[in-house]
Amino acid sequence: MSHPVDIHVGKKLKQIRTLRRFSQTDVAKRLNLSFQQIQKYEIGSNRVAASRLFELSQILDVAPAYFFEGLHDDTNATPKADPSIEIVSALAAINDDALKTRIVTFIEDVSGLTVARQS
C-alpha cells in the first residue's frame, strides 16, 4: 500500500506536469526513464527519491517544496479539487489548434502571465 505522502507528491507531479503541458514521455526522456516510471510516481506506487525530486523540480520549473504544498498531517482529509486541472483537461480536448491558441492568449491576458509553449 502506498504511503499518503507518496500519493500526494505524485498528484503534485501530475498537476504541474499537466499544467506545463508535458507528457509523461517528455518528462521520462529528460530523466532517462520510461514513461511507466513516471506513471508509478504519479500514482504513488513508487517513491520519488530526493535527487529525482530535485531533477523534476528543475525540469518543471518549480521549487522542490512545491511537491509538498498542501500536505497535512491529517491524512484522512479530502484533498481539494484543483480547477486548474479541469481547465487543462478541457483545453486538451479541443481539437482546433487555432482556437486553443486564442484561449491560451486570453488566459495569459487575464492572468498577466505568459505560458511556455512547446514546439
From TrEMBL:
Xref: CDD domains: HTH_XRE
Xref: InterPro entries: Cro/C1-type_HTH (IPR001387), Lambda_DNA-bd_dom_sf (IPR010982)
Molecular function terms, GO-annotated: DNA binding
Entry-linked SMART domains: HTH_XRE
HTH cro/C1-type domain ranges (all copies): 13-67
Name of the protein: HTH cro/C1-type domain-containing protein
Organism: marine sediment metagenome
Lineage of producing organism: unclassified sequences, metagenomes, ecological metagenomes
